[in-house]
Every structure is written in structure tokens, then in C-alpha cells.
Amino acid sequence: MPKSQVSALDHYRIGLKLRTLRATKQLTLSRLAVETKLSTALLSKLETDRMIPTLQTLSKLCTVYGVSLSYFFSDPSRHTIAISRREHFSPIRSYQETLKRIALHHNLIGVAKCRASMLEFPESLILAASEPGMPLACIVYIVEGSLQLDVSGTRELLNTGDCACIDTDMTVMWSSAGPGRCRVLLVDAAGK
Predict the structure, then answer these.
(1) Nearest-CA neighbor of 145 among 120, 174, 172?
(2) How many structural domains comprise the chain?
């Protein structure tokens, strides 16, 4: 297929959206193949962007996932990710040498109605950070290990001490990116 045709659809990241939907529904490729009557090889090619799906194929997948075709072709209405690497942080020292505080992001000051969670990712587990089509607004701080973020086809590797501020309605997948566990401090709005 000519590169110009592929580039026109790259913007929509259909493969990533398909992987996210499958991960959210906790389906294996084999189970999805049974439900859609499509081959696992075809589904794998679609999820890895080695093949562009036909509208008929997407329609079958929409039925299984409970989404409309517009889910695959809509443009994001908001999308920002700001990553702060550990080496960019400068400790704010208090008058007492025993207390050290590190500001992770200036937007944390004055934030109310938020919650913090410690997430532990075992090796090889890939999860959707949010439900498909739902916005995600959070701050992620890597306490231990490495976290891989896949956002609409862009891959970021965050290591211990790195921080990401995410505000997007695009598809976000995350997983442990190395041997051993990955522990992450997640701060997001309460009630989400």
C-alpha cells in the first residue's frame, strides 16, 4: 500500500484504539476471533497497524465492543501530556535540613477534590488507563521501576522519579516496561 494512503489514516491510530478496546474488555485475540468470526492473524495485523481495516471489519468490531464507527475517526477535543524527568526537579529546602519537599507539578497547588492511589504493575500486564472515549486527567509519578505510556501511537518510557501530567481524551495504554514491578503514584479527580 502506498505510504500516502497509510499516512492519511495514521492520525486516527486505529490499531491502538483496537488494542485498548480489547484490553478494556479483557479479551484474548482468540476469543475476539470467535466473537467476530475474523482470524486471529487478521486481528493482530489490525492492532499493530500492519493492515488497515475495511468498514465492514470495523463494523463487526464495533458490535462486539459496543462503540460506534465515529470512535475510530473522531479527533480529540483535548490532549496534553507534560513529562517532567527526575533530573529536572529541584528540591525545595525548608528551614530545617531534615525536611525535603519536591514539587512534582505546579498545577498541584490549590487542587481540591482529588485522590491519590499507588498502582503496582506486574510484569507484562498492559492496561487501558481509561475507558474508551472517556477523558483522562491525572498526574503519574513513577515511584519504582519503569512505566511505558502509549498515547495514540506515541510511546513514552518513564523511569523512577519521572512524572507525567496527562489531560487527554485520546486512547492511553500503560504497562510495566522492565523486569520486576512498577509502582506508580496516581493523582486524579475524586469520583472518576
Answers:
(1) 120
(2) 2
**How is residue 76 written as a grid cell?**
480529540
Q: 186 near 138, Cβ under 8 Å?
A: yes
Q: Is the pTM of this model over 0.85?
A: no
Q: Which of 40, 73, 106 is the last residue of a domain?
A: 73
H or E element that contains 44: helix 40-47
Q: Is the pLDDT of residue 176 over 50?
A: yes
Residue 143 in contact with residue 184, Cβ under 8 Å? yes
Q: Go through 85-119 and write b for each residue having 16 or more CB atoms within 10 A of its CB, e for each that does not.
A: eeeeeeeeeeeeeeeeeeebeeeeeeeeeeeeeee
**Residue 20: all three cell numbers together:** 485498548
What is the C-alpha to C-alpha distance for residues 92 and 73, in angstroms, rounded to an integer?
45
Percent of the chain with pLDDT over 90: 16
Which residue range is the domain that position 52 belongs to? 3-73
Q: What is the 3-state secondary structure (H, E, C) of 56-110?
A: HHHHHHHHHHCCCCHHHHCCCCCEEEEEECHHHCCCEECCCCCCEECCCCHHHCC
Summarize pLDDT for 28-87 with one digit per residue, the tens: 999 999 989 999 999 999 999 899 899 999 999 998 888 888 888 877 666 666 666 767
Say whether both 69 and 84 belong to one domain. no
Q: At what angle do helices 14-25 and 55-65 cross, to 10 degrees?
A: 30
